[in-house]
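Office hours follow-up: a student asked to see two folded examples consecutively, so here they are.
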Amino acid sequence: MSNDSRVVRTPHQLGALMRAFRKQAGYSQAALAERLGVSRQAITALEREPEAATFERLMKVWAVLGLEVSLQHATPTAQPPEMEW
């Protein structure tokens, strides 16, 4: 298993990454929705506005996609990133 980690600092990045991982796993929005017992529209909304989802919902999606969450201290940068929260 590779360590293909990604850094997420904004909701927009999270939505785009979830969409990419969903496609990489071979799921359409409809197939992922069926697997989770939700509507396709719920997956669309989740990818568009992940900040509106509960953490429990996100964890369920990540589990189906074979993903895990890891928190770590940010790498120091010259300027702090703009927060979109």
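And the second, which I mentioned at the end of office hours:
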Amino acid sequence: MSDQEDRRRGYLVYDGDQLALELREGAGILVSISAPPPMPGSAPVTHPFASATFRMAANEGELGALLRAAPDLGAFLDQVEARGYRVERSES
């Protein structure tokens, strides 16, 4: 892992006490637990300013829509908190 990757900020988004989303700053892949993996040879779903793993199918649609609509990571996190999710900084 490069020094730049080590410095990327990570966040955990909770719905109540349940982990809903793991997020890391920087362009990357979006991983869904509710959708099947991409077919062999097809490209994964990517995002320009975040890598994310959705952990709860119940709110994946809402969080995914907020992520796609946000102009940057800060705006996404603000919207998530405004919707009642709890955001914590990740140590890893």
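Two things to take away from it. The CA atoms of residues 66 and 78 lie 10 Å apart. Confidence is low (pLDDT under 50) at residues 1-6.
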